[in-house]
Each structure stands twice: as C-alpha cells, then as structure tokens.
Design brief:
The structure is a homodimer. The first copy, chain A, has about 350 residues and is of the alpha/beta class. Helix content of chain A is about 40%, strand content about 15%. The structure holds a DNA duplex (16 and 16 nucleotides).
Amino acid sequence: MESVDLKKLARLLNLSISTVSKALRDSYDISKETKERVIALANELNYQPNPHASSLRRHKSKTIAVIIPEIANNFFTLAINGIESIAQEKGYHVLIYITHEDAEKEVAFIKHLHNGRVDGVLISLSSSTKDYDHIKELQERGLPIVFFDRVYEHLNTACITTDDYESSYKATQHLIDKGCTNIAHLMFAESTSIGNKRMKGYVDAIHDNGLPFDEKMIVHCTNDDEQDYKLLEKIFRSKRPDGVFASVERYAILSYDVCNRLKLSIPEDIKLISFSNLQAAAFLNPPLSTIRQPAFDIGKEAASILFKALDKKMFKLKQENIVFKSTLVERESTSNSIIRKASDNKKVF
Amino acid sequence: MESVDLKKLARLLNLSISTVSKALRDSYDISKETKERVIALANELNYQPNPHASSLRRHKSKTIAVIIPEIANNFFTLAINGIESIAQEKGYHVLIYITHEDAEKEVAFIKHLHNGRVDGVLISLSSSTKDYDHIKELQERGLPIVFFDRVYEHLNTACITTDDYESSYKATQHLIDKGCTNIAHLMFAESTSIGNKRMKGYVDAIHDNGLPFDEKMIVHCTNDDEQDYKLLEKIFRSKRPDGVFASVERYAILSYDVCNRLKLSIPEDIKLISFSNLQAAAFLNPPLSTIRQPAFDIGKEAASILFKALDKKMFKLKQENIVFKSTLVERESTSNSIIRKASDNKKVF
DNA sequence: ATGAAAGCGCTAACAC
DNA sequence: GTGTTAGCGCTTTCAT
C-alpha cells in the first residue's frame, strides 16, 4: 500500500516536488542530468501519477464515456473495438455505460457526466429515448459528444452512421429481384434514427417497384424476444409474407425460430435478409443474406472525431453526417433457385 | 461551461461550503431545513460533485477496471453484462481495457492502475500471459483483483470459472457415446487455465474409455483465423477425425468452414461439439451441440465478490474457486441417427 | 536550473 | 447547527 508519489520521489532525490514534476513532464527548464535521475527512479519504483490529482488540477480526465443501448450485440461489440483501438493509441481510458434501451438510465448516466469525470462522450441512443434535453445540457456544459449508429441529427455535432436508407432500399430491392411481392419489414423502434431510415428505404423500394404497400406488413418489434416471437408468428401465419427484411440481427434469428416452428422453409416459402454482423451468418441453415455494417470503422471514426475535438481547442464539432457504406452479402436465405448448392448436397441422401 | 460547484451553491444559499457539503452527504448535524434548501438548489442546478476532487480526498474512485482479452466474443460480452449490472446497482463506474491477447498490453494496463484510478480490478488473463508479477504487484499495492474465466489460482484471491474440466470430460464422453473413436481436440492456448483444464477433461475421457490417445489429435490453435484454418484443414485431411471437440466458439465456426470446403458432412463424417454461447447455435447447419457457460452469472459473481472486498474493510479476499456449472446442449452436430429430423425435412426434395 | 507557494473542488477534523 | 481550516497529489506561475 506504500504509494509512490511526487513527494516520495522528491525526498529520495533531494529535489523539490515541483522539480520532479517538471522533470517527469519533460519541461524545458530542467537539466538533462536531473531529468534522467528522476525518470530512472520513477521507473524503478513504478511511479504512476495520481490521476485524480492531475485531473483535478488540469481539468481534464483523459477518459471518455461510451454509452450504448446493449452490449450482447455484434454491432456494438465491434464498434467498441474500433473505439478502444483509437483510445488506446491516444492513451485515453474508456468508461462503458449500458442503458439497456432505457431512456431514464441514459439520462441518469449523462447527468453523472456533468462534472469532469470524462472529457467527451460517444453515444448510441437508446430505443426509448424521445427527447434530447439531457444531451443538449451536456453540450452546454462544454462537453463534446458525438453520436454513432443511433443518432440525433439536430444537435450540432457529428453523427457517424452507415447508409441505412440506401442499404434498406437495396435489401428490399434484392428481395423483389428474387421474386418477392409480399414483403414484411421487421421494424426497429420508430423513435430511433435507424428504425426510421431503414423503414423508409423499405417503403420507397416497395413503391418504386409498383408493389402495393400494406401497413400491416410492417411489424413494430420490441426489445423483448418473447413478445417479438409472437408478433412474428402472427404475421407469418396471417399474412404469409414471401419475403422478410429484418432491420436488426435479433429479428433474423427469431425469424429462423418462427419459421422452424411453423414449418416454413427459408428461402422456398420465405426469403430472409437482415442487417447483421454475425460471424456465423454463412453457416446458418440456410446461410443468411446480410447487410453487413462496417461497425469497427464506425466506432473508430466516431472516436477519431471526438479526439479531434479534444486535441485541438480550435476544432469545433459541427453538425455533419459521416456515412460508411454497408455491404449486401447475398447468401442462400434469399436464393430463388430450386437447385441445391453443391455445399448442401451432403444434406440430401 | 459554467460549472456548478460547492462554492457556487454555498454563495447562492448564504452558507459555508462545508455546510453545503455535509447537507448533501446527509450528515447528522445539519438541520432538516437547510438540508432541504441545499438539496433543492443542488437538484435545480443539477449539481454533480467533481469526482476527481472527491476521489483525491477520499482515496477511492468509485470505479473498477475490467480487463479482458477480447470483446468480439459472446462469453465476454455476457460477462460484462453481468459485471455491469452489479456495478450499476452499486453506483460504480466501469473502465474497460482490452488486451487483444497481448501480455504486454496487459502488463501496461495494470501498471497504469497503480495509483488510485480504480478501486478494484476484474481480469480474465490474456492467452500470452506467462507470468503474474504484474498482478502480484498490484495486489501488494492493496488493490483487490479478482479473476474470472481465465484465471491464475495461486494468488490468494477469488477465481470465478465454469467447470471446465468436467464439462470437457462430458463433451468428450458425449462424442464417444455417439460412436466417435478418433476425436480431435481443438485446444486453446496452453498457457491458460481454460486451455489446460479443457484439454485434461478431453484426455481423461479418452483414457477412461479405453480409447487410444494420439498426441497428434490435439490441435494447438492460435489467435489467428487464417492460421487456425490451415491447422484444421490439415488435421481434418490427414487424420480424418470422426469427432471434434472445440474448446472455444471460434474454432467451431472455423470447423464449419473447413468441413464445407473439404465436403465433410457434419455429423455424418465428423461430429462437432464446442464451448459456445452463440445465440444462433440452434440455427446453424447443422445445429451445433454446445457447452453453454453461465457467462452472465460468472460476471455477476466476480463483480459481487469484488464489491464485497470494497464495501467491507474487514472482508479479505482469499484464494477460493467459485465454479458455475456449464450445460451441455445436445443438437444435431453430434447426432448419430441416420434419420433426418422433422425440422430438416424441408431441406430434402 | 531549481524551489516556494497557490490552488484545482472536495472532505473531515475541529472550532465556535 | 454552522463555519474555519487543513489537506488529498498534482501542476503551474512566479521567485530565486
């Protein structure tokens, strides 16, 4: 428990505290000699400056907060990886807050950030967040906050996303190209940016292809597996969609489950495509056609922008949308061929 | 940027700073009246105490560090969820450090924790960690540190794990029961606790069943997908195992890939079982038999123990192993029936 | 080139 | 019941 602090180093070296401090910060007006002496001892004793003292004095904490709705999710997990890679590079520390899709928790977390614990915030909004005063207030305190994935575009800061609208349009078009005419959209919370944009892409593709639009084909999913399962079961039964566009990975997995239960065959009865970063998508039964988001890059870019705002006092965050393209990966779940693929021959005997 | 601090509150209320401070901490010797006045204003202005000042003064930071080898991993992701649930309850903050399986980074992170940034540490060791001096040193500084999953049992602290040995034995036995006689073990880094225990379970089951043990059937996997792919391809080709026990999820996914490539059928040619917390395991082709670890509970328990050590000064961490049982979930990847399951009938025409 | 001293915002003795 | 004061460990003028 004997902690090493500047006082101790100073005493041991017969120097003043301030000299030691300056030496360690490589100040110009300390002689090379003493610098070396100081650094040598500091290393020997593994001196680590007390971050609280330092933060208190300098009004910066060298840490950022990452606020996400959930973590058992391939997208966020990859995004954190991207964020963390930049933070490590910059010598920053990363605090994680998980809102579990609860706006109240989001507000509470943000409130707790109002006094210097972090220098900046990266956030992906919870699905139940309906107003943005908590974010605004934080900004007014001078804290840079940048959005990624689930964003709010009217707050004079950067939003890092994927091309949700275009990707959804493409996914829907893909289903149509494969012969679907009765396509269900498993929609994510309509209070979110992604929920809306992904739905708009779907709706526009339906219209542009002259297909009838049926409000009932939009399934307003929740955050609860059981409830969503029932919703899907109901619509798969009653509306008999021949195509399903899942706006998030979880709904795709549920779709597999429901189809199994209802003995609906993918892709023969229902073609399925989903936003998903699932590593194992290619090994599902059948392999899942996905829209793969560049999650790592999104995290990385969000962090980079935030650090730009932290590094340079001149750099001001301004409203801007930075968009990374997703990739549509076609697999068997949207195949319209009757011929089994070679890799599946083994399944038939 | 106008920050609200005790001084400001005191000025506005015509009280001294210490009175305000005590009122907010609900001290006994402040009148109910002033307490209410103080709290009212504090809420109105959304006063948040400066955590650095407070930490500096009280020598505790109300934050813990979680050090993990990787994050794009269902196990760790669930464990973090468990940890975070407890931390939230206790009002603690969670710093995340990802070592990316790099022992040097692990050492560096731990060194940085030597001066009060956190009150305690939860760690799952990197696969390249070979000595534990950095951990010992941290302990000597008085910081409680508890292990989970990838542990080191000789350090006088708690280790929270699953029953790696028993589960591996069961998994291997399961393959044997299904008729396998030539079983490969895809082994995780032998410097890790889990790598060793899982192998031992495999070896003992092989022996106990009177099967010949072949050193060559143990594949020493790495952290690199490409390299591992080649290793698997080689052994699947040359040794023609009829059963494969993957010690971690990643190796199972790779096995699917390699089997596809080599036109080996699961489970007809090779039966496959793996430690895995993959949500979609039931929808893989074929559905994957798994050993599912109670990852959330492991994280939760690790955090609970750590907080016990933080809450009560009397409570001393001592060497103890807390073991949560994993569950073997049998699915088609280890099936030995020739009859296709009903749910798969649709695949045949 | 080095040191003395003030102070970041808060807490906790200790006065009054 | 309220106020005064002395730090926590560090950074940073300002003196020497």
